[in-house]
Amino acid sequence: MYFNSAFVLQALALSITLSLSSPLSANSKRQDLTLDDCASERNTPDRKCWQLAGVPNYLINQTTGWLKTTPICEDRTRCCGPSEVWSTCFLRLATGEDQDCTVLGDGQCARTNQLDPNLASSIRTQVKYVVLALYGVHDYYTAWYSSLTSAIALVPPQDNDGFANLIFPNLASLSPGERLQTTEPLQQAESNLREVFQQIASLFAEVLKTLMSNADTLVRFVGTGSVDAPWTPLNQTDAVTSLNTALQTYYVSDVMKQTNWYAIPLATSAQPDPSQPIYLSPSTRRQYQLAQEGEATTDPSTMLRELPTYADMTLLFDGAFNCTATGQANDEGKAYPGFNYAGTLNLGCTSLLPMRLECGAPCPTNPLANGTCLFTQIEGC
Prior knowledge:
The protein is mainly alpha-helical and 381 residues long. The chain has 14 helices and eight strands. The protein has helices spanning 5-10, 35-39, 49-52, 55-60, 66-69, 86-95, 121-152, 160-167, 176-182, 184-213, 215-224, 236-258, 300-306, 313-325, and strands at 17-18, 261-266, 278-280, 287-292, 338-339, 345-346, 356-357, 376-377. Strands 1-6-5 form a three-stranded antiparallel sheet, with helices on one face. A three-stranded antiparallel sheet has the order 2-4-3. The chain has a two-stranded parallel sheet with strand order 7-8. Strand 5 and strand 6 (345-346) form a beta hairpin. 36% of the residues are buried.
């Protein structure tokens, strides 16, 4: 399994960011865009209109912005309710329909192309683009959630027996009871993966609610241009593939951790020693020596040769290094997904594979203020 090219290129950084969307329309590349183009209902919405039409100023200006000038009242007639979320109020006043786009899913946030016919022409374009942004952001994170649901359904893969036999090469000789006990790490990893699914799903819901509840945050998100949301739908095919690869790698690393596998980060080099079970990351050029505490159940060289069938090697090794370097990995810890400032999903730490240093090896990253290195040495030092 492999990430798409955009994902692999972004793996060169410490954090691996998913920012998947469809190519921009030709309309978004026009250089001669005018306010009339933005106002025209015949034209495809263009992201440049967000700034050209002064949408941020219309919405959040501290003196004349919509947020400052829209009254609060109980009956919600041409006003917002006392506890009504700003985005819900805006959509209601702009479209005449009660909608809640603060939650994931299509049930309570259905797009409408109809704006209030009584809207003043002087603000109609700005209102249109705020409405489009609210719908687009909601659809973007709902599509992420849908992609996540599809991706988790594919983990572990149907050929998980192959991975089980790689980790436990003596399975065929065991009785059913012994086999069930031996493969307990696989079941535990599946259970842990469901927790990760809930974490990511909660992140999607939390980010959406934040954007819909805080107009300043929405304006910053839309204005960054770092992702195509809200103007271009998420490419869910690519999203499912990338999420599935990340989740599958998490699952594999969890099983490896439970069965006492670990990696030793070595110095960067052009070419590793071919006689050693060493993986050379094409992204960071860092070498990792694979090992197992105690007597290895599977030859480490065989593991390295077979692992690409079940996991993304860059995520498995560089991801584990990232988790350790950021303090997210410890004996009780787990890999945690998160969001970058621009609203893109950060999967730079999705591997539980332990990192260990050789006896006396220097810390590969800057130690903490108290001198503690986040990378522990191998047993017996």
